[in-house]
Amino acid sequence: MEPTRDYPLFGGAFSAILPPGAIDVSDLRPVPDNQEVFCHPVTDQSLIVELLELQAHVRGEAAARYHFEDVGGVQGARAQQVDSVQTLSSESLALRTYCPEAWVLSGKQQVAKENQQP
Fold it and tell me: Which of 47, 48, 88, 110 could, after both became Cys, cross-link 79 (CB 3.0–4.6 A)?
């Protein structure tokens, strides 16, 4: 079995640990500059890391939910489910002087893939 690997994102600005077999979708088709997209050929699951624009009207946990729901709406998600929203400790933030808080939302969205019916 292929081991997990530390994969650089956005030109090495940060990285993610990807599961065995994950494929960089940008090797297959164009991906927007604000996204890193990976898929798994066996499970038919995708992982999308997206840089988002600050929305000053929402803060904290509400901001994480806002962006999750916004991305789902733009993609035409048929179903959305938030599993958890957690704050990251300020000590773990490399850019904490510019970004004093960060949140991680884990959830699921049911979205039709490109060229497929919903």
Answer: 110
Name which residue leads in pLDDT, 118 or 72.
Answer: 72
Euclidean distance between CA atoms 59 and 87, whole angstroms? 12
Tell me if 36 is assigned to some domain: yes
One-letter amino acid identity for 66?
Answer: Y
pLDDT digits (tens, 9 = 90+) for 79-92: 999 999 998 888 87
> For residues 110 and 48, what is the distance between their CA atoms, to the nearest angstrom?
13
Q: What is the DSSP letter of 55?
A: -
Closest C-alpha to 18, from 27, 6, 28: 6
Q: Are residues 47 and 70 in the same domain?
A: no
Structure tokens at 21: 């077999």
Residue 105 CA to residue 80 CA, distance in Å, equals 12
Both 3 and 45 in one domain: the answer is yes
- Residue 97 sits in which domain range? 57-111
